[in-house]
Specification:
5-stranded mixed sheet, 29 helices, about 65% helix
Length: about 750
C-alpha cells in the first residue's frame, strides 16, 4: 500500500507543475475542511453543498490539466477575466478610462508571458514510433520550461519570488504566465529557454524551441489601438468581452511572432545540415520545410541549397519567412508592420463586414454551421449556471448562502464540462478518450476504437484560411456524431488532436465497421468546404476526406499477451489494475492509429491520381496550382522521401485503370510502409513488429473481402491478394516465434 501511495505521489510530481501542486494541495485542504464540517452537521444542507463544491473544485483541477502536465489554455482565459474583477484592494487590475480605453493597474506593470513552441512535433511522432514519441517530447519540453522558470524565479533563500502558471497554448506550444518579473531578468529567461534542447530516446535530433516574450502592458496597448478604430457601438466593455479580446490579440501577436521565427529556425536547421554534409538534409527539407516555402525561391531543395552556397541565405530567409506568414495571416495582403496587421485583423472581426458574409458561408458549408451534440450540452450547462446565478442574486441569510453555493456548483459543473471538451468542435478531448477507454476495458466491455484522420487540414488552413479550417473540423465532427447515430450503435466521438479524431463503440469490430460505412456515406453526400474571407485565390471548395484505422478487443488481447510474455511490463505494472488498463488503452489506440498508415496512403494515391488526370488540371492554371498544393501537403502520405511523388506522377501518366491501378497502388503502399518503418526506426521491439504485422493482415483481409465481393473479380487478383495475406500472416507468426530476434530492418 505504501509503495502505491509513493508511486501516485511521484506520478503527480511528474504530471503537475510546482505551482499546480500548490494549488492542488490548497483544494485538498478545502475538501478536508468541508468533510469535517458535514461530520459535525450531517443535517445541514449548506454543509452538504459546501462539500459538493469542494469536490467539484478538485474535479475541475484535474479536468483542466492536459497530458503534458500543463493547464489547458481555456483556464488562461479565466485568469485574464479575473483582471476585471475586484482584487484584494477592492479594485480591478484592468478598468475603463474616460474614453473607453482599458487602463492597467501599476501592480500589473511587470506581468509577462513567455511562449515556447516545440518545433517538429510531426518528426517526433514519426521517428519516435507514433504519438507516444510526440507526447514524450511535449512532456520533456514542459519539464524544461518548469525547470527554467523556477530557477529564474528562485530568491536568495530558495523561495519563489513570483507566482506563475504553465498552460498548453496549442498543440505544441506552451505559455508561461508570470505574475511579476523585471524585464532584464525576463529577457535572460527567454534566452535561456531558447537554448534548451529537450531530447527523447530513439529520436536523433533534439526538439528545437522557438521562444518569444509578451508583456501584458503591450497587449493592452494593442487592444486599445483596436478600440480606437472601432465605431462607438463596437467598443468593448470591461469584463468577459474585453478579456476575450485580450486573449485573442495576444494569440494573434504570439502566432505571428512564433510563426515567423519557427519558419526561420527550420530554415536554419536545413542550412546547418547542408553545410555539415548531413545526408538527411534533403529528406528533412522535403518533410518539414518545403511546404512552408512553396512558391518562393526556397520552395525546392536545389533553390535552397543554391541560396546557401551563394551567400544570399540570411536576408532571403528572413524576408521569405516574414512573407510566408504575412500571406497566411493577411490573405496575401502585403503589410509593412506586424502590429498594424494585428489591429486590422481584429477590427475586421468586430462590426466590420468581411468580404463574404458569415451567414452565406455557413449555409454553403452545410453541417459546418450546425451545433454539434457537445456544443448543445455545453449550452445547456451554461443556461443552468446562469439560471442558478440569477436565483442567487440578492438572496440573503442561510437560504441565500444555499442558493449561492448551488450557483457556484452549477458554475463549476459548466467549467468541468468545458474543460473536458474541445471548444472548436464541442467533442470530448483526447484525455477523456483515454479515461473512457480505460473504463470500458476495465469493465470488460467489447469496445473497439476507430482512429480517423481528416485529410488536407493544412490545405484548408493555409490555402482556405483559418475560418475554412475551422469549418472543416466542425463539419467533420458533426458527420462523425451523425454516423454513430446512423449506425445504431453505442459510441462516442473525440477530438484526439489536430486533424485526428477517435470513435469508441461497443460491439467490437462489426459495430466499428458499421460506423465507418455510415460516415463514408455521409461524407460522400456532404457539401465541399467553401472558400472564406481569408482564402487565397488558389483555394477551391473541397470535400472532406477521411482515413481510418480500427482495433478491437481481439487484437488488443493478442498484443497485450505477447507484450507481457516478452517482458514489456514489469511485475508491478501487471499487478496494478489501473496500470494494466492504462497500458491496454494505449495499445488499443496505437493499434488503430497504425492502421491509418495503409489506408491513408492508399486513398491519397487514388484521390490525387484522379485529380492529376482530370481535364481541368491541364486546362485551368488555378486548378493546377490547387492540386499541386494538395500534392505538397501529402508528402508524408505519399512516401515522398522514398520516391513516392515520382510514383504518383508515373501512375497518373500510365494507362492503368480500375482494378489494375488499385493493385499497383496496393502493392506499392504495402512495400513502402515496410520500407518507411525500417528507415525511420531501425530496430523495433517485438510488440511494434507484431502491431505492424497485425494491421497489415487486417488491411489485406479487408481488401480481399472487397475484391471477392465483385462478381467479375479477376481470379489472379484474388490469388495474388491471398498470397500477400498469407505472407503477412507468416511474417506475424515468425515474429512471435523468433521473439527476441527483432532486427528486421537489418
Amino acid at each position: 500500500m505504501e509503495d502505491n501511495r509513493e508511486r501516485t505521489r511521484l506520478e503527480e510530481l511528474q504530471r503537475y507543475s510546482h505551482a499546480g501542486l500548490l494549488e492542488k494541495a490548497h483544494l485538498e485542504n478545502e475538501l478536508f475542511d468541508a468533510e469535517k464540517g458535514i461530520e459535525g452537521n450531517p443535517d445541514d444542507e449548506n454543509a452538504a453543498l459546501r462539500l459538493e463544491v469542494a469536490r467539484k473544485k478538485l474535479e475541475l483541477f484535474s479536468a483542466e490539466h492536459d497530458n503534458a502536465g500543463a493547464f489547458k489554455f481555456k483556464k488562461f482565459g479565466r485568469r485574464i477575466q479575473e483582471l476585471f474583477e475586484a482584487g484584494p484592494d477592492g479594485k480591478p487590475a484592468v478598468e475603463a478610462g474616460e474614453d473607453g480605453e482599458l487602463l492597467l493597474a501599476e501592480s500589473m506593470a511587470d506581468r509577462r508571458f513567455m511562449l515556447v513552441n516545440m518545433g517538429e512535433l510531426d518528426r517526433f511522432n514519426k521517428e519516435g514510433g507514433g504519438h507516444a514519441g510526440g507526447d514524450a517530447a511535449l512532456g520533456e519540453t514542459a519539464a524544461a520550461v518548469e525547470k527554467a522558470v523556477t530557477e529564474a524565479l528562485k530568491g536568495e533563500k530558495g523561495e519563489l519570488t513570483s507566482d506563475y502558471q504553465i498552460y498548453r497554448y496549442d498543440g505544441n506550444t506552451f505559455m508561461v504566465d508570470i505574475a511579476s518579473m523585471p524585464l532584464q531578468e525576463f529577457s535572460a529567461l527567454v534566452r535561456k529557454m531558447q537554448e534548451a534542447e529537450p531530447r527523447v530516446e530513439g529520436v536523433k535530433d533534439p526538439a528545437p524551441l522557438t521562444v518569444r516574450g509578451l508583456d501584458l502592458k503591450n497587449v493592452i496597448d494593442l487592444v486599445n489601438h483596436v478600440q480606437a478604430e472601432l465605431p462607438p457601438e463596437g467598443k468593448l466593455e470591461p469584463g468577459e468581452d474585453a478579456a476575450r479580446e485580450i486573449v485573442e490579440v495576444m494569440r494573434r501577436a504570439g502566432d505571428w511572432d512564433l510563426e515567423v521565427n519557427k519558419l526561420f529556425t527550420r530554415a536554419e536547421r536545413v542550412k546547418a545540415k547542408i553545410e555539415s554534409g548531413d545526408p538527411d538534409a534533403r529528406s528533412f527539407f522535403d518533410n518539414y520545410v518545403k511546404k512552408s516555402f512553396q512558391d518562393t525561391e526556397f520552395g525546392t531543395f536545389e533553390g535552397f541549397s543554391k541560396a546557401v552556397e551563394e551567400g544570399r541565405y540570411l536576408g532571403a530567409a528572413e524576408e521569405i519567412a516574414v512573407g510566408a506568414v504575412e500571406k497566411r495571416f493577411a490573405g496575401g495582403r502585403k503589410v509593412d508592420d506586424a502590429i498594424q496587421e494585428i489591429i486590422d485583423a481584429r477590427v475586421r472581426a468586430r462590426n466590420i463586414p468581411p468580404e463574404i458574409p458569415p451567414l452565406e458561408k455557413a449555409e454553403a458549408a452545410g453541417t459546418a454551421g450546425a451545433m454539434t451534440d457537445g456544443e448543445r450540452i455545453l449550452e445547456a450547462k451554461r443556461e443552468a449556471m446562469e439560471d442558478a446565478e440569477a436565483r442567487a442574486a440578492g438572496a440573503a441569510g442561510p437560504e441565500g448562502e444555499g442558493l449561492a453555493l448551488k450557483a457556484q456548483a452549477a458554475k463549476l459543473e459548466y467549467r468541468i464540462e468545458a474543460a473536458r471538451r474541445d471548444m472548436g468542435t464541442g467533442l470530448l478531448e483526447r484525455g477523456v478518450h483515454y479515461e473512457d477507454l480505460e473504463k470500458a476495458i476495465g469493465e470488460g466491455k467489447d469496445v473497439a476504437a476507430v482512429f480517423v484522420d481528416m485529410g488536407f487540414l493544412k490545405y484548408f488552413d493555409n490555402m482556405g484560411g483559418s475560418d475554412v479550417g475551422d469549418a472543416a473540423l466542425k463539419t467533420a465532427a458533426s458527420l462523425m456524431e451523425q454516423a454513430v447515430k446512423a449506425a445504431g450503435v453505442k459510441g462516442s466521438v473525440y477530438r484526439y488532436g489536430g486533424d485526428e479524431f477517435t470513435i469508441q463503440v461497443e460491439g467490437g469490430a462489426a459495430a466499428a465497421e458499421q460506423v465507418i460505412r455510415a460516415l463514408e456515406t455521409l461524407r460522400a453526400s456532404s457539401e465541399p468546404i467553401p472558400a472564406g474571407a481569408k482564402s487565397r485565390e488558389e483555394y477551391a471548395p473541397t470535400r472532406l476526406a477521411f482515413n481510418y484505422g480500427l482495433a478491437d478487443r481481439v487484437m488488443l488481447d493478442e498484443l497485450y499477451g505477447l507484450a507481457a510474455r516478452e517482458g514489456k511490463y514489469t511485475p508491478d505494472e501487471m499487478e496494478d489494475p489501473g496500470r494494466v488498463v492504462n497500458a491496454k488503452a494505449e495499445l488499443l489506440t496505437k493499434a488503430a492509429d497504425v492502421g491509418i498508415e495503409y489506408n491513408k496512403a492508399y486513398s491519397r494515391f487514388m484521390l490525387l491520381i484522379g485529380e492529376l488526370r482530370a481535364p481541368e488540371y491541364a486546362s485551368d492554371p488555378a486548378r493546377r496550382k490547387q492540386v499541386d498544393a494538395m500534392v505538397t501537403f501529402s508528402n508524408k502520405a505519399l512516401f515522398s522521401e522514398l520516391g513516392g511523388k515520382d510514383k504518383l506522377e508515373a501512375l497518373a501518366a500510365s494507362g492503368l485503370e480500375g482494378e489494375a491501378l488499385e493493385e499497383e497502388i496496393l502493392d506499392y503502399v504495402v512495400d513502402k510502409v515496410a520500407e518507411a518503418r525500417a528507415r525511420e526506426q531501425g530496430k523495433k521491439d517485438v510488440l511494434d513488429l507484431l502491431l505492424a504485422a497485425q494491421v497489415k493482415v487486417a488491411f489485406l483481409t479487408d481488401r480481399l473481402k472487397d475484391m471477392e465481393g465483385v462478381v467479375d473479380a479477376q481470379e489472379q487478383k484474388i490469388v495474388k491478394l491471398q498470397g500477400s495475406l498469407k505472407k503477412a500472416e507468416d511474417e506475424k507468426r515468425q515474429i512471435i516465434e523468433q521473439r527476441g530476434n527483432v532486427d528486421r530492418a537489418a
